[in-house]
């Protein structure tokens, strides 16, 4: 019958969704989700929520949070959560409707997707009363009185199955639109548009994603988990080995953002972050922080523009121009280094991009020096190389200053020796704390300048770090770092070393 394939597909989807809720996502499912976010402007997934080894707990000084119920390993999947009332800029109710709602009393503006998400959340609570505690149990900000639901124990799980059509209709209740708007303002996520939406540069086109359980994760500029969006689903993975009882924290504001800007954005939560990175920045002192911000705002943009133009030159560019630009970048690096306290640990996210750019130009005339600069860039993310690898604090070639001088990573954990493919030892004993994509880039850049098995070990490490952060195995790694492998062959800047790696694997 004509309807049978559709029914079979729906049944299969229901089974898959139930499987995810019971066991989490496998690498193939993550890869499929990633591929769909590239081609679908409004991707939504019918997966049940997966709740790993976590529980809701009262955290001293931070309110509610999520803590681990057992020891976990880096890369372990902790949560898979689907949004309630998600809204995309290309949804039927939003597409072509550039709405900007303003509340002058509170100085708050809401975009089209925020308005539509609020309406959907209100209807969800009215139609599905079991969602009242997950949604209304979230806070609506310091200016709004807590709801009755926010004073009750927060649910770790709640029913996600459709309501029974034969059940009695839910009792009428009042839902405060102001409270729902506050919940979305302080708790909803706003991922950038999907590539298929073709509006990545438009701030009005950001989606609005209310994820109740991930919303109660507290903030740290240096997180211990990664939260990654695939359509209306967010996955949460451990970034490091974490012991039982650890509170898992993610970023409301990226740690790569300068100290003053981070704290300005956190001010709406009436929250002063005291994470390891903020403590380091505060010990550097206000004058040093202002100087660092000034250097990044005035000197770096012009150097980056010159760098991009020179690297695009069809003949590879004039070697003398590369040397001159490298000298300017290294001079900026030295000035930035002067803004850090002498005992500052390794984690220095402001240096990561400058070190990488310098390496690109130093590599034209000093390949070994370029490797050392990339290793320093890696060290500035908080990563720690295996013993025997050149230390990030060593002098970075004849033209370079001491480009990292790192001591220990923030919140150090016991080093772990990891094995990659064919018995190759991975080149990191501690994974990055910040700038994960930049760390993967540094690992691939190092690999591209080395030979044989040594290069392959660095690619193994890059693939491992990427999988810890995002999941999806080699498929997503290659999709993101080999330009999607057109015709099955890696392309892009690191194509040659990735081809060698694939052949060896």
Key terms:
505 residues; alpha+beta; Beta-clip-like; 4-stranded mixed β-sheet; 3 domains; 4-stranded antiparallel β-sheet
Order of helices and strands: HHEEEEEEHHHHEEEEHHHHHHHEEHHHH
Return the average pLDDT rounded to an integer. 84
Uncertain stretches of 5 or more adjacent residues: 391-412
Helical fraction equals 40-55%
Structure classification = alpha+beta
| Count of helical regions | 17
Measured by DSSP, the beta-strand proportion falls in 5-15%
Shape: globular
How many distinct beta strands?
A: 12
For the biggest sheet, the summary is: 4 strands, antiparallel
**What is the rounded Rg?**
24 Å
Distance N to C terminus: 46 Å
Question: Number of domains in the coordinates?
Answer: 3
Strand order within the widest beta sheet = 1-4-9-8
How are the secondary structure elements laid out?
Blueprint (H helix, E strand, L loop, with lengths): L3 H20 L3 H13 L10 E2 L2 E6 L3 E6 L8 E6 L17 E4 L4 E4 H16 L4 H5 L40 H11 L24 H4 L2 E2 L5 E6 L2 E6 L8 E4 L8 H8 L9 H9 L1 H13 L1 H12 L7 H19 L11 H14 L4 H14 L3 E2 L42 E3 L5 H13 L3 H18 L3 H9 L13 H10 L1
Parallel strand pairs: 7-10
Antiparallel strand pairs: 1-4, 2-3, 3-10, 4-9, 5-6, 8-9, 11-12
């Amino acid at each position: 019958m004509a309807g049978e394939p559709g029914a079979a597909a729906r049944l299969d989807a229901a089974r898959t969704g139930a499987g995810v809720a019971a066991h989490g996502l496998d690498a193939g499912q993550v890869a499929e989700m990633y591929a769909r976010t590239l081609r679908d402007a409004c991707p939504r997934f019918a997966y049940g929520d997966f709740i790993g080894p976590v529980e809701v707990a009262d955290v001293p000084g931070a309110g509610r949070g999520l803590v681990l119920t057992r020891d976990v390993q880096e890369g372990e999947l902790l949560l898979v959560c689907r949004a309630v009332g998600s809204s995309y800029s290309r949804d039927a109710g939003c597409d072509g409707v550039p709405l900007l709602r303003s509340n002058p009393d509170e100085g708050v503006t809401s975009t089209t997707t925020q308005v539509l998400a609020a309406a959907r959340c209100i209807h969800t609570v009215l139609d599905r009363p079991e969602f009242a505690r997950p949604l209304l149990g979230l806070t609506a900000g310091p200016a709004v009185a807590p709801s009755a639901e926010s004073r009750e124990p927060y649910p770790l799980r709640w029913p996600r199955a459709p309501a029974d059509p034969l059940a009695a209709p839910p009792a009428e209740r009042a839902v405060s639109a102001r409270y729902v708007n506050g919940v979305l303002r302080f708790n909803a996520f706003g991922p950038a548009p999907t590539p298929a939406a073709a509006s990545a540069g438009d701030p009005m086109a950001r989606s609005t994603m209310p994820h109740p359980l991930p919303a109660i994760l507290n903030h740290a500029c240096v997180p211990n988990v990664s939260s990654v969006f695939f359509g209306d689903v967010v996955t949460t993975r451990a970034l490091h080995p974490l012991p039982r009882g650890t509170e898992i924290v993610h970023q409301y504001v990226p740690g790569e953002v300068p100290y003053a800007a981070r704290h300005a954005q956190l001010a709406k939560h009436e929250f002063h972050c005291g994470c390891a990175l903020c403590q380091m920045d505060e010990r550097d002192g206000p004058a040093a922080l202002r100087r660092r911000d000034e250097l990044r705002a005035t000197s770096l943009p012009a150097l980056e523009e010159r760098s991009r133009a020179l690297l695009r030159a069809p003949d590879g560019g004039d070697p003398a121009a590369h040397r001159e630009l490298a000298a300017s970048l290294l001079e900026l690096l030295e000035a930035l280094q002067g803004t850090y306290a002498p005992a500052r640990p390794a984690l220095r996210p402001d240096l990561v991009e400058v070190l990488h750019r310098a390496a690109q130009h130093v590599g034209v005339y000093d390949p070994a020096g370029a490797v050392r600069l990339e290793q320093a860039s890696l060290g500035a993310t908080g990563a720690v190389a295996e013993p025997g690898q050149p230390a990030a604090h060593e002098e970075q070639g004849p033209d370079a200053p001491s480009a990292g001088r790192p001591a220990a990573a923030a919140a150090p954990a016991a080093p772990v020796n990891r094995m990659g493919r064919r018995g190759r030892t991975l080149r990191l004993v501690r994974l990055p704390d910040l700038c994960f994509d930049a760390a993967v880039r540094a690992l691939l850049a190092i690999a591209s300048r080395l030979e044989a098995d040594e290069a392959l070990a660095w690619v193994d490490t890059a693939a491992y770090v990427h999988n810890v952060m995002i999941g999806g195995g080699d498929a997503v790694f290659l999709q993101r770092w080999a330009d999607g492998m057109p015709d099955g062959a890696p392309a892009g800047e690191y194509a040659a070393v990735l081809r060698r790696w694939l052949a060896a694997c």
